[in-house]
Design goal:
The protein is of the alpha/beta class and 243 residues long. It is built from 7 helices and 11 strands. The strands form 2 sheets. The protein has a 9-stranded mixed sheet, with helices on both faces. The chain has a two-stranded antiparallel sheet with strand order 5-8. It is globular, with a radius of gyration of 16 Å.
Length: 243
Amino acid sequence: MKPFLLVATRAEDDAADEEYASFLRFGGLSEEQLHRVRLEKEPLPPVNLADYSGIIVGGSPFNSSDPEESKSAVQLRVEAELGQLLDDVVARDFPFFGACYGVGTLGRHQGGTVDRTYGEPIGPVEIRLTAEGRRDPLLDGVPERFSAYVGHKEAVAQLPPHAVNLAGSATCPVQMFRIKSNLYATQFHPELDVAGLLTRISVYRHAGYFPPEEAETVMEAVRGSAVHVPPQVLANFTARYAR
């Protein structure tokens, strides 16, 4: 099969490597089947979509909705390169899966409103599928309600007019959406289990998701949670589009 391409932007090696390992594990992929580019370290090389089965965008410490003047030179470069990649991906309706940061990236690219109205603290939330979500092939085998891990400062406040809302939560109305037939983004993290989330809490304890002194409390709450369904969404993506 042709590999998938993971476009990553996490500067911290522990978090970046954990994320890559999680996408491998829950996507059912080998390292040869999931190439990784770390945009925070180097510019995006030329991408020939014909060489890949699909594109995956992982999470990020970047917030798409931050004021332009507050963004670093690296973030501005990353956003520009992702925008150019999405120009091609959207035009071709090429298989795309964006987890968390992918919501802001794809949502803004397609004319949606992304801001801090519906940010959620780190931890599990109940996700509910919409009527469209219950019919979507990427959610095959996923129950109408399930728990998923979240942790984000920004979210989609208004979808692009042509987007289809597939899932939401009580605190964030857009947890998953689709553009055209093959472009998906989730606000929740389908690649996270307890161990992976604990790594991120440790790495990003000073990133403003929670008061740093509360890190152990947040970790303890996560240790007591049970989240099993979301990886099915990622597995469905890789199974559907592997070619």
